[in-house]
Amino acid sequence: MMHESSISSSDVDDWKRQLAGAFEILLDRPLSSYDPEAVYVTYLGGNFIDETGYNRHGTWVRPAALSGAEPVVWDYPPYDQGEPPLVFDASGSIFEFAKADSGLPPEFAADLDEASFSQGLIRGADLAPLLVRHELDLTGPEWRDKWYVCYPRIASDGTLFDAMRVAVGIGHGPESLLPFEAEATEEWEEALAVVAHPGLRAHLSFFCTGGEEGLSYLQDDRSGGGILVEEGCSLIANWEEGQCQIEFAVVQLSDLVAGPRLF
User: What is the pTM of this model?
Assistant: First the structure.
């Protein structure tokens, strides 16, 4: 494996150019055609995080995680291909709380309602000061059914390029590519044929299958629930595993949902 210190700036730039070109194939338009001032994120969806209860795990509501000082690391391999753990940004993730009449402390419920960008929905960064103010620890059993992470944000820098990169599980260099052997659908096999790097082509093929092996690429369509479209967000790209256990959605956030720029 190549160490980061051994990678020259020209190598890094070349790798970024290759990735950008590949992402433009997937998006069927230039990255430059998207709003450069918007915030783009990748959310993890699917049934598995709910079935395992990880979307209610106390690690999400640690003060250091909510403030963005520390990531949330879920050591679960979504593809079972030797990939690194998923790394989340709790400060940029979206939490949903039970209604104010569902046993929440009244003063906290009032402040929560004021800080939420929509009914019951609040960014982790906005939740953090409320917990300090009210001296609350949401990891206790009494809070178990009162909150969950409804939109877990995979850590990225807010650009469309980086949201696409983390959505397809690629790191900052070619050493991060995984030895996937899944075949893309005929349509995507033809489209990806122009990707010169064979490892990158094989990696992306895993995200363009029929879903039985690898993930299906639905582009900007969605088979399940909405991705904050009622709050002005736009779905850019969407993948799902055949049994709907794992989903990745690249979303352009509205100003309301993005809130103050954190990056």
Answer: 0.92
Classified as helix, coil or strand, 45 is strand
> Which tens digits make up the pLDDT trace of 202-221?
999 999 998 778 999 999 88
Q: Which two tokens stand for residue 219?
A: 């582009």
**Within 13 Å of residue 163, how many CA atoms lie on the same side as its CB?**
28
Q: Which two tokens stand for residue 127?
A: 């939740």
State the burial class of residue 140 (Cβ atoms within 10 Å of its Cβ: 0-12, 13-18, 19+): exposed
Backbone φ and ψ for 39, nearest 5 degrees, come out as: -100, 130
**Residues with Cβ within 8 Å of residue 122, at least 6 apart in sequence:** 94, 95, 97, 112, 115, 116
With contact defined as beta carbons under 8 Å apart, do 156 and 150 qualify? no
DSSP letters, 69-96, are SS-EEE---SSSSSPPPEEE-TTTSEEE
What are the Cα distances from residue 144, in Å, to 54, 74, 122, 191, 213? 12, 19, 17, 46, 35
Indicate the domain borders of the chain: 32-258
Q: Is 206 helix (H, G, I), strand (E, B) or coil?
A: coil
